[in-house]
Amino acid sequence: MTIHPSSADTKPAGSAAPPAAGISSVEALGWLHTAKFLTTAPQLHFLPPLSVPEIAFVGRSNAGKSTCINTLTQQKQLAFASKKPGRTQHINLFSLGKQGVTDAVLADLPGYGYAAVPKQDKIRWQQVMANYLVTRENLKAIVLMCDPRHGLTELDEILLDVVRPRVEEGLKFLVVLTKADKLTRSEQTKALSIMKLQAGGGEVRLFSATKRQGIEDVATLLWQWAHPPAPKDVAPAPVQPPEVLSD
Q1: Strand ranges (DSSP E) for 97-169?
Q2: 146-203 tens-digit pLDDT
Q3: What does DSSP assign to residue 12?
Q4: What is the β-pairing status of strands 91-96 and 139-146?
Q5: CB 149 within 8 A of CB 131
Q6: N vs C: which end of the chain shows fewer Cβ within 10 Å?
Q7: pTM metric for this prediction
Q8: In sequence order, what are the beta bridge partners of 108?
Q9: What SS3 class is residue 121?
Q10: Domains of the chain with bracketed CATH
Q11: Quick one: which of 98, 182, 116 has its CA closest to 147?
C-alpha cells in the first residue's frame, strides 16, 4: 500500500506568539488544559491557515488517541471517541494558550486502519492524512499513538515513511506507547527499547491514562516543542582598528 501526497499549498497567515522560558510539568499541564475546540475540516482546504505551531496526533483506530488527548488536556470529552472506531473522518483543531491568546494548536487526525471502514474511505483518508502531514506548513510536531502490545502496523510504517523527510528537516516526532499499564515492567522496558530503534530518531514515551504514567513527561515535551527557544543573536565580528603605518 502506497500513499502519494499531493502538492497542496497552505500558507500560514498572521504571527506566532513569542517563545517563553522553560516551565515545570505542572505549568505545561495547565497550558494543555486551556485546549478549546477551534474548527473541524473534512478536507485540507477547509483548514484555516495558521502560523502558530501545530502538533498533530495520529494513530491506528483503538490505539488510545482520544484518551491520550483528553488525559493530557484534563478534559473528558475534548477529543471525540466514536463508538464505531474509524468512523470519525474529520481533522479537528484545538487552540491552546492562556489569557485568550492562542500560541499553539493541537490537530486530532482520524484513526486509520479499522476493518469496518469501507476500503474506499480508508484510501481517501490515508490520502488526506498524507497530504496534511507533508504540506501543512505550521506543523511542528507529530505524536504517533501505538499500542505496544501490537507494535507498529503496516499503516504506521507507511506513515513513518511519509513523514521521514520532514523529520530529517527538523520536524519533531514522538511515539506514545499507550496502554502501558497492560504490560509488566519488563515488557515495558522491552517495548520501549524496540520502539526507540524503530522511531528513526524520534522520542518515545510510555503512557497510561489509568496509571497516570508518562503524562507529565509528554506534556512538558509538547510545551517545549510549541515554544522553541529564540535563536541566539550572533554577535558581529569585532572590527579591527586600522593599522597605523610608521615612517
Answers
A1: 104-108, 139-146
A2: 999 988 988 888 888 889 999 999 999 999 999 999 999 999 999 999 999 998 789 9
A3: -
A4: unpaired
A5: no
A6: C
A7: 0.81
A8: 57, 92
A9: helix
A10: 25-184+198-226 (3.40.50.300)
A11: 182
